[in-house]
Design goal:
The chain is α+β, with helices and mostly antiparallel strands. Helix content is about 45%, strand content about 15%. The chain is built from 10 helices and 11 strands. Strand 7 and strand 8 form a beta hairpin. Pfam families: Septum_form.
Amino acid sequence: MRYVTLTTHSRSHAETGMMVLMSDQPDRSPNDSALRTRVLMGGAFLGALVAMTLSWIFSWVPESPQLVAQRQAEEKAEQVAKAREEAFRSPPGSCLNWTTVDASDVHRVSCDEEHLFEVVGLADLTPEYGPKAPLPEEERTWRELTKEYCGPLVEDYLDGPLDPEGKLTIGVLRPDEKQWTDGDRALHCGLQWVGPGGGLQVLTEPAKDIDQSNVWEPGTCLALVDKSVGDPVSCDSEHSYEIVATVDLSEEFDSYPSEDEQKEWLEPTCAELVEDYTGGKGVEELAEDGLILSWDTRSKESWKAGSKLVNCKVGATLEDQSGLAPVQGSVKDSKDKDDKKDDKKEDEKDGAEKDDQGDGADGSEDENGDDAEGGEPTDQPDSPGDQENGG
């Protein structure tokens, strides 16, 4: 009985003591420990992220506009070079056209359409320039290489000679410094038409079908550059020559004619054609305007290449004979101008006669009428068309 009581009493105290202990200490369950660990890890990660962000902010320096422009220019140059290389690697017989100065928009077109380059073939410089050979720097060297390597390809392509003075010339796309360093030794050979001023001219048919005679269509005016001939320009601007006709020498000569024979035949032929072109204005009338009629001739080399067409043209020379003088306006306009001047003179003459008929009945001369005739307003400006400078 006592034992039981003691046991009960002891349990009571034990339970009471346990209740006191639980009220003094928090509950340390496994879930609380894991939460604390996650919080500590999250704080450490956030701190590292903040530190990295601050480090990037303080270490980053924005590019200057000059560096940005330079980088963009380099990227564009690489894109252009790649596009050009792909286009010029087109198979022989492909025709290429572009509209931008750097040929960044180069693309293939039909050779019956407007184009600037016709692909002939690929030449390899490796036999002459090994892997360690430096890039040639002189343009003369490149011209010699073009003639040596591309020349035979062009003649095979045309199935005949290339006129050295003709319309077509050899064009080439050569490796740049980076491509050369990477081992590229290829010359992309082709045919193109380069004007006297250096500008590329538009072709509209395959090279094999083109007459190589270096002639221009009648009505074309060629620029004046350093007292010499340049590329086509508007006839309203200053120019060196105006093309008035195209003549076929083979209509008169079965075999090559000497330059004297060409001159003897072309002089009257061009004189007749210029009258047709101007509507009746002859050589003497041109000379009154300070203009001269001239023509091209063909060399034996050109004749052998099939070039037998020549141009008749009108221009002017400087007084000291040091070169060509500037001409502005078409010779066609100068004829219209002369016709209008003649019509004006006729009108003035008719008006004067009518004034004479209106003199006094006694037949005496009307002084006022004479003054009116002599005082015609000849200093009045002509019509806009009359103000153009003929020739």
